[in-house]
Amino acid sequence: MGEDKHVKILFSFYSDALEEWTIETMWCEIVDVEKGHYKIDNVPFYAPFAYKDLIFAEHDADENMLTYRETVAFSGHSTIQVVLMDKTVPTNEIILMLNALGAESEKFKDGYFVLDIPPHINYKPINTKLIELQQKEVIGYAESCLDEKHQSQIS
């Protein structure tokens, strides 16, 4: 028992940023194999989903792996994609600044990372900092999956 209960699941989606159909695989925690329920267990780098979203996936014969079909329940987390525009600013400096406001982060590579905004965190100060950095042309960002609660904090 006690061993890690995770599987890789394939997500196929249209990326507005890349303007094409894209595939991303993510680690998901097994919730109920019979029902095909899994919880996303990492912050998506490109896919418009959020950490801990409960999803339905089934085996796809063409892909030969578990494949996302639909979201069963939203977790309340939000996902923000951040691209560094000013290469003179270290990526980690921006990450630390946003982490201090309550955002969690996962770095894909230098110059690109994603933020996870947990449900209990007020998104307003993070959003204000993102806007400020974008106006200074330090970063560009996209709110790829913004929870309703976080949306209401900035509208």
Describe the structure.
The structure is a single chain. By secondary structure, the chain is of the alpha+beta class. It folds into two domains: about 5-75, no CATH class; about 80-155, Alpha-Beta Plaits, CATH 3.30.70. Helices cover about 20% and strands about 45% of the residues. It contains three helices and nine strands, in the order ββββββαββαβα. The strands form two sheets. A five-stranded antiparallel beta sheet has the order 1-2-3-4-5, with no helix packed on it. A hairpin with a 4-residue loop joins β2 and β3 (about 35-40). The model has no long low-confidence stretch (mean pLDDT about 95).
Task: Give the helix/strand layout.
Elements: E1 6-15, E2 20-32, E3 37-40, E4 54-60, E5 65-73, E6 78-84, H1 91-99, E7 104-109, E8 112-117, H2 123-135, E9 139-145, H3 148-154
Antiparallel strand pairs: 1-2, 2-3, 3-4, 4-5, 6-8, 6-9, 7-8
